[in-house]
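Help! Submission page says 'invalid entity' but I think these are all valid:
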Amino acid sequence: MVETREVLRLEAVCKSYNIGTPIEIEVLHDIDLVLNQGEFVALIGPSGSGKSTLLNIMGLLDRATKGRLFIGDQETGSLDDTAITNLRGQRIGFVFQHHYLISAFTALENVMMPLLVEHDFPTDEMEKRARDLLAQLGLQQWENNLANNMSGGQQQRVAIARALAMNPALILADEPTGNLDTKSADTVLELMKAVNAANGTTFLIVTHNMDLARRCHRIIEVVDGRIVAQKSAAD
Amino acid sequence: MQTMFIITAVAMGVAVIVFMSALLTSLQANFIKRVLTSQPHIQLTAPDEEARSLRLSSPDRIIAPMIQRPAQRIRSIDQWQKIRDTLRTWPEIVTVSPTMVGSAFAVRGAASRSITMMGIDPEFYFEIVRLPDYLVAGHTRMLTEDILIGTELAKNLGVTLGDKIIVSAASGASRVLTITGIFDLGNKGANERSTFVALRTAQALLNLVGGVTNIDLSVHDIYAAETIALAVAAVTGVKADSWITTNAQFFTAVRAQQNSNTLIRVFVGLSVAFGIASVLVVSVIQRSQDIGILRAMGASQGQILRVFLLQGGLLGFAGSIIGAAAGGGAVTVWHAYMRQADGTEIFPLVIEPSLFVVAVLLAAVTGVVAAAVPALRAARLDPVVAIRG
């Protein structure tokens, strides 16, 4: 039997804002969630349900008020900001609704950014890795184009390549196709699935698009800060 | 575009600093050179003679309550050879030159003029007062029968090189001396009165054979002259006056000029700093989403801080390189075009290479310091808030 490896685990995670004030509000309530290696998961829910907050906590961009978060075997509650930053850089990649590419850089340079931030990579190796990723996402002929000279679909594919640069175990994508036309959205989704299948990278995709969600392995539904349903897409 | 504007602003600021500094430094160096190459940095003279009151054995009964200050006769500095030898061992002192100064009359035919006669040892004295630089005719030979006179005195007495004049001192002694050189000190009064003879000639005319009335000194650090003068007076017991006290107004003017130059530099520097800071603050706001993404990708606060500090430093550095070149060029062109009525340069231009190095370094440091606040703001951005914009 093949052992399933956990990429991320949330245990009774809560998140509150304005703590200690009369307007304190809890937006996430006792979230328990496990993401395994190689999963392709959709996170759905109405606007204001807490999806983005959950994504930020899972991405170590924000801290939970209560509960525990494991990235792999690493419990993150006791880590300081530097360790959190390092862990985030090495284990998690982000794709947002907007690509957030640096417009003055080429596609290749944008993909190399996380590797530059990490310092440990020789330039040749960085370029080779960035080129390989752009090729995997069908952008080899665009690698020297400035980011702002590319179409929305191409920009989002560059953003995915950038998220994959550090070979993370988990990619968190917040409405990655939200700004794209149907054809481009379909291309981007298929490319993410291809990367998931080829590299075994876990994807968690926040979306309002049920067609997209149905093409994932698992769908998690959040309503009012609680996970109300987890089901296989086949269901 | 924004970067271009701020680099231009920095360049203009640095150009102003370089231009002003080079100009004022040259002007000041020229003033000081003119003043200090025609007089010693420190002059030692014998202490004033003072009358002593007569007292009885009781210290509180004074017989002569009014004490008349005695007339100060010309007299030699006691033990001047010993003082000279001692001072020549002081590392702060460059040259020690004993001189004999007194009044006399220069007579030629029916014309006579009162003069200040300076008996000098040319070997040392010309190292302090660069008389050869002011010579307009003849040479600075200084044998016992020779005399150097100013242009105005030559005009008044109707004499020229090789002519002889009678020099009579108050002691009654007189000599016939040959004019071997005529100088122009750039001051009409000085050209009318100043004359130079050999030390031995002056000693004989003033009836002080073997004595000197002054010991002239030059020092390495002209601004330390007053301190050195005080030390010399304390050690030797003679009166020591530095150029700072004998030219108090000039020194005050030099200091005022230095202060105004410093103030200009400070205010221009501040305006450059605020310019860089304001551009970087806007840059942080404009790039907050990029900063958020970099933080999400694992960039530490320290890395973000360094990026903006480096940006500030580079803005200052780039602007200062252009500004230093522009300022240096501007002052050179100004100097080339601004001429005196006779076509000669107004004053020699002194452009120290260190001025450019200091200006560039200061601008780069100013850029880094100015970037500190925006850089901290960038580093402390919450990535979630930054990405949301």
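Support: the input was valid. A stray whitespace character was the problem, and the output above is from the cleaned input. The first helix of chain A runs from residue 51 to 58.
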